[in-house]
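Weekly structure sync, notes
Attendees: PL (lead), two postdocs, one rotation student
Agenda item 3: pending single-chain targets
PL asked that the sequence for the first pending target be pasted directly into the notes so everyone works from the same version. It is reproduced below exactly as submitted, 298 residues in total.
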Amino acid sequence: MRSMLDIAFVGHFARDRLVIGGVAEVASGGGVYYGSMAARRLGFSVAVVTKLHPDDFPFLDELRREGVVVHAAPARQTTGIENVYPDRTMDRRVCRPLGFAGPFTAGEIPQLETKVTIITPLMAGEVSGEIVRLLAARGPIALDVQGFARIPEGETLVTRDWPGKAQDLAGVTYLKADDAEAEVLTGSSDLRQAAQAFAVLGPREVVLTHAGGVLVFAGGASYEARFTPREIRGRTGRGDTTFATYVAARLDGDPDYACQLAAAVASMKMEHPGPFRGTRAEAEEFIRLNGRPRLPGG
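Predicted structure, written out during the meeting:
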């Protein structure tokens, strides 16, 4: 008999080109990468469902070494995004698509026993509304809206609203957007108002990230936590790490605790290139050292 996993991540594993202050490097990326690595480091059991070119399958071994169960389908290309940061503050970036592994089919998504599935596409066309509803019928789902609102347009990626948004979000338990996406999709630049507008569409809990931190709207209440990295050396993957940590922490903690832990883990991740490589105990100590001597209910 198969044991139930805590979390499954569905999305493209990417090989990204990061350009920081004019210096370029190629690195693994995608929400399935940053998210699954964070969740495993926090002690949760994790599976990844992805697709990429077979030549890049060896890059998945990094996930397996962390104990992630990997289900990979072959694709003609591996998805990639060029993230250009004009300066080392990494406050701003320009994104350009480099490759696309194609849409998931129902046959590429195995029936997994999990407590929650996090759907974390990189851009529109990767996961259809039908796949979202298929996974929602199996159990609770978390969804990052960038996979519907981030649209390739020429040589850039732009944020656009999409037809069928209300239907696609109706069965979502946890929803994530950044502040720019939230404004485009709700028409409000006020994060609290945007979160409430998302909640009206069906999601039970809304996670909004911005340059300064994270805001959560859950159960009619708002929770906030700041990003407090001592330095920023790994901006890419901040939102993926925040969302994965929040959803994972909600499996055994309340929204306030999950919000605080998400901000702490993302802050620690930003201090180094690549995914989060700390521990839950270190993240909780990070929270205490940054002004929360007593953690909310975990």
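Discussion points:
- Residues 255-270 form the longest helix (16 residues).
- The domain at 5-289 is CATH 3.40.1190.20 (UDP-N-acetylmuramoyl-L-alanine:D-glutamate ligase).
Action: rotation student to compare against the earlier draft before next sync.
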